[in-house]
Amino acid sequence: MSKTVEITSPAAFAELLKSSQIVVVDFYADWCAPCKRIAPIFERLSQALSRPNQVTFAKVNTEQQKDVAAANSITSLPTFIVFRNGKIVDKVEGADPKQLQNMLQKLNQDVKSLGGEAGGSGGGGGGGTWRGADLPRGYSDITDQIEVQRSELLNYDPDTGGVRVLFDTAKPSALSGGKAPAKKDWIESDTDEQLLLFMPFQSMLKLHTIQLTSIPPPGDDDEDDEVPMRPRTIKLFTNKPHNLGFDEAEDLSATQEIILSEKDWSAEGTANIPLRFVKFQNITSLVVFVEDGDGEGERTRLDRVRLIGETGERREMGKLEKIGDEPGE
């Protein structure tokens, strides 16, 4: 269900600006072809970034709400405005992909300044965006560009968390101490040690680094085969339209293959894996194949996945014309 608010009156708009710290507004009209073309993109952003009373996405039909449009000096369609604490902080006129992308990046920084990325599930650690390793200089966390609803995880134990917990913005419960959470905020493999994770993206990405967090519980010599392992051999595949099968993943040539050892894991259980940047340009999806674990056990464990890099143009946007332009042939 969409989280986008349809503005029905000037009073409703004024109240929204008071009740939400950040408000992102799409000013549109039913007759505007570029408005219709970009509407699905706006809806996906709303689903990904909305946070109750903090970040709200709204739409204003300028034909029905002429006073609201006039008060905000709307002269072309579509127009996107970002309000913070009731004041305009950014504005994009027309359906310009580059300008919209820049606005989105600024919005992400605003969201993070509120104490955590939008769309996080809260998890066991509570409060704020957590990463187990520092960001490489000049790059940002772009995990929020993953289309979580279309992501797929194969061969995981259903008694552990599903694919969503891997992208949780909260600190893993295994690092928080205290009582274990009622619902496990990590995943473990099921029938053997292999895992296959498919992640499609909202936009084309340039991937610089992938950060994997794995925090197995301590064990003893008598139960080493029962304690889940950290991943050891990892194969990455780019731009696949869907997940691979296990036999396929074993046979295909990977975009990059990584073999991790104990020294690669930080004190917080995170492996910071630099990628061959030239091979990870203009990426629309990523498959992570955990081929085996580091030990003698039968299961592997993952607590978090973070993607580090740069965002590019949004997919499925096509050519978007400003108001007054003729549609392309």
Topology overview:
Elements: E1 5-6, H1 10-19, E2 22-28, H2 33-49, E3 55-61, H3 66-71, E4 79-84, E5 87-93, H4 97-113, E6 140-141, E7 152-154, H5 173-176, E8 187-188, E9 195-213, E10 231-238, H6 246-251, E11 256-259, E12 270-274, E13 283-293, E14 301-302, E15 304-314
Parallel strand pairs: 1-3, 2-3
Antiparallel strand pairs: 2-4, 4-5, 6-15, 7-9, 8-14, 9-12, 9-13, 9-15, 10-11, 10-13
Organism: Staphylotrichum tortipilum
Domain PITH: 131-327
GO cellular component, one term: cytoplasm
Total helix count? Answer: 6
Please give the share of residues in helix.
Answer: 10-25%
Mean pLDDT: 83
Uncertain stretches of 5 or more adjacent residues: 115-128, 315-329
DSSP strand content: 25-35%
Helix/strand order, N-terminal first: EHEHEHEEHEEHEEEHEEEEE
Q: Which architecture of the largest domain per CATH?
A: Sandwich
Largest sheet: 8 strands, antiparallel
Q: Would you tell me the structural class of the helices and strands?
A: alpha+beta
Count of the separate structural domains = 2
CATH hierarchy class name of the largest domain? Mainly Beta
GO molecular function, one term: protein-disulfide reductase activity
InterPro entries: Galactose-bd-like_sf, PITH_dom, PITH_dom_sf, Thioredoxin, Thioredoxin-like_sf, Thioredoxin_CS, Thioredoxin_domain
Protein name: PITH domain-containing protein
Domain PITH: 131-327
